């Protein structure tokens, strides 16, 4: 009785091992990091790329930008996704030089809950007012600063409840970056980070859905969320006055315009968020999400793996961009794409460039 | 197989020779089995200890940079700022949030749990107690995220629109003790200050309520089992002496108090360690404000919220330090509880022994003492 089952067991073990060996014949690439980019990465880029490149297997773990940066620093992954570019001090801790590749961008939307103000009437806000709200210096919706920006709206005398992310987030990085750029006080007392010490006591929501949930259910609340959440949740959102003084709706197009305006100001290593760009049609609060890889890929100890990684990133920067709009991201402007591909060509394995 | 078991009583040849080998083989095997099981059990116990040691050691070593930089000051500072360049870390507000919300949870859960356990064991007819018992166990098995979702989507809006305005309308007029001043020199009264601030729903009160909801089934289930383990003689004896129902119940509760303390501690430990549900309702802001309507943050919540964003060494170490503080505070709490239970047990044993001897004539003194024996052994 027991012998046949043992044989069967052995056969099945052998079969599993064989299957494993077959799977290992394919090149597998590992990535980790940003949750902001996870929807397009996991739903579009990886499945579409694997469909056309059957010998490549890609595993991306959305563990958060901070963990992604930790993993790429420890060289335990092949690429890292991060909503914030690495800081100078972080870059000093990597074994060899790293490169940043902006992949897509998205607007950060200010949504609010104001009973009595119809959703079609978008409240207008500018940077200074927004910073003062988040600093706790403007406490009520009928404050004169907000009134001045909205002469045609009857604002209720209602306490403002400031809502922010309770978890570390690239969205917070973009948002606090914007506030730092428009308010000296914010820059001095709070600063820009994925996690800050909030000066005005409000409420923290876990994830964009947490923030959207609190805003939706609390009278007088204001919060920042990613574009998709504001659209999906049908939350009322504010028009942000841009650098040119024009109130702008958060749209993908507004971000594309913002990017295009900033391309010529971009530094060589691309480590600059698109914050408060010039241009009448630009939406002021938006940011890139980045892919980070090593310039020298010797640590992977496999030419095939290094080549597959570089080719996957090349595909994201070119064909992959076509999936951006349907997933609520803004695609890269073409002049920036060219610069990024030029940068990708500098990646080497054993001193030889991987792409020609 | 059945044959070999049936055979030994009727050996085919040589009664002594037939019976001896079988037990001996069994004995040898038994010894080997003894030894093997002994070793396995030891290894299991050692693995547990090793695992705990590794866990504590790892958390400690990871938090060393923060321990070196902040030392004990970490425990009394309320400044938590992870922004590079201005970073500074302190844990006090999270300790406050953790213990305040858990304490609130206990405050609500303990009376409810004791009541329902007494109901299940001593009042309800069998069919009802069976149903309620089943429902309690069902509640204990609900994953915490489900409580969190319910809390965030239904309880918090209800608190915001109905519960808290109502509480505030009544509570703010109850002024018993002046405890300080607000801005503009307005006097802060207790307990009116407990309902100070905007009624937004996501706050300490919501945290306490959701924790109460989560620990009530556990405390109820354990208390129920403890009450059921009380020997019926004790209750019968109490009735025999002319006790009323409530007096008999008090005898039963007194007898099982150690177990009930244990149940409460279990509930408290779960409340302190609860993460996802509490994140969803407590508001997540780092402040110490003595009001039910103030938002707060717990240590476990902080770990879940910030661990993925620890992008520089000292930040990471500080988050690990919070983990260490959480671990140590549960350890201290459990030790204190153990000590308390031991003291209560000893005192109760002495007191009940003395009282009985003094009050009752010798014949009735015998049986209760034998009843108390195993309970003492169990609790010690």
Task: Give the topology string of chain A: H per helix, E per strand.
Answer: HEHEHEHEEHHEHHEHEHEEHEHHEE
- Order the strands across the largest sheet of chain B as they lie in space: 1-2
General form of chain A = elongated
Task: Calculate the terminal CA-CA distance of chain A, rounded to whole Å.
Answer: 62 Å
Q: Helicity range of the residues of chain A?
A: 25-40%
Termini separation of chain B (Å)? 45 Å
**Roughly what is the average pLDDT of chain B, rounded to an integer?**
82
Order of helices and strands of chain B: HHHHHHHEEHHHHHHHH
Number of E strands of chain A: 13
Dominant shape of chain B:
globular
Instruction: Give me the number of helical elements of chain A.
Output: 13
Work out the radius of gyration of chain A.
23 Å
Sheet/helix structural class of chain B? mainly alpha
Count the beta strands of chain B: 2
Identify the quaternary structure here.
heterodimer
Q: Segments of chain B where pLDDT lies below 50 for 5+ residues? A: 1-18, 354-380
The description of the largest β-sheet of chain A is: 8 strands, mixed
Per CATH, the class of chain B reads Mainly Alpha
CATH architecture annotation of the largest domain in chain A: 3-Layer(aba) Sandwich
CATH homology-level superfamily of chain B: MetI-like
Note down, in words, how this protein is organized.
The complex is a heterodimer of chains A (356) and B (380). Chain A has 356 residues and is of the alpha/beta class. Chain A folds into two domains: 27-106 and 287-353, D-Maltodextrin-Binding Protein, domain 2 (3-Layer(aba) Sandwich); 107-251, D-Maltodextrin-Binding Protein, domain 2, CATH 3.40.190.10. Chain A is built from 13 helices and 13 strands. An eight-stranded mixed beta sheet of chain A has the order 2-1-3-11-4-8-6-7. In chain A, helix 2 (38-52) links the parallel strand 1 and strand 2. By secondary structure, chain B is mostly helical. Chain B has a single domain, classed as MetI-like (MetI-like fold), CATH 1.10.3720. In chain B, 74% of the residues lie in helices and 3% in strands. Chain B has helices at 2-6, 15-19, 21-70, 73-76, 92-123, 126-140, 144-171, 204-228, 232-240, 245-255, 257-273, 276-281, 299-306, 313-359, 362-379, and strands at 175-181, 187-191. Chain B is globular and about 70 Å long. At the A-B interface, helix 3, strand 7 and helix 9 of A face helix 7 and helix 13 of B.
